[in-house]
Amino acid sequence: MSGFSGQRNLRACMICSIVQAQSKFQREGCPNCEAILGLQNNLDAIQECTSQVFEGLITLGDPARSWVAKWQRLQNYQPGVYAVKVVGSLPDEVLTALEDAGINYIPRDGSAAEDDM
Asked: Which residues of the chain have pLDDT under 50?
């Protein structure tokens, strides 16, 4: 995996948990959340909406058919490498934008119990 050679530059999206190099977030944005987050060419948004603190990695080739993707709530996302847990808090304006878009945000840090979902 040549894209993961410099692990200290890896970040995970706090919404979908995809893991990419910071430079890829800056160059291409998030393949799942770009419409809401606007990470492409926006270093401030990358710092606020992605995290360097995450646990575990899952590689998904076909999220729509994967039981692991279903278990991690990733089945509607693009193929890629995802974190199991992402530590961090989204800014209030992003939470408001998610709510306004009708998206039920569930933190990926394990703070939300299954009963809350």
From this structure: 1-2, 114-117
